[in-house]
Backbone:
């Protein structure tokens, strides 16, 4: 096989190849622009409500909503329980913990 033929065969791609030239991912796996569930951000209003709860003085020392708090937050934000739990798991890691660390360093 010649070098040109080798290059031609290695650069051609099928619609299901992970090396597609159009930037989309493999349609079979449902990743990227293909099918499957896409990653969606929560509505800005919902995030504002959740952040306000997390950073409020009465919850800052223990950022874990009670079952009653969870129901109230789900009703106010319109998100489901899984989204709520995921948001709090991420927020404690990305927002709360760095703030707590900064406060402890400041004295």
Residues:
């Amino acid at each position: 096989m010649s070098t040109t033929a080798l290059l031609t065969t290695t650069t051609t791609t099928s619609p299901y190849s992970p090396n597609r030239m159009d930037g989309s991912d493999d349609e079979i796996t449902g990743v990227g622009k293909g099918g499957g569930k896409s990653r969606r951000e929560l509505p800005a209003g919902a995030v504002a409500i959740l952040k306000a709860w997390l950073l409020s003085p009465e919850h800052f020392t223990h950022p874990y909503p009670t079952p009653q708090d969870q129901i109230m937050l789900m009703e106010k934000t319109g998100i489901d329980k899984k989204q709520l739990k995921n948001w709090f798991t991420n927020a404690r890691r990305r927002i709360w913990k760095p703030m707590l660390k900064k406060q402890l360093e400041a004295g």
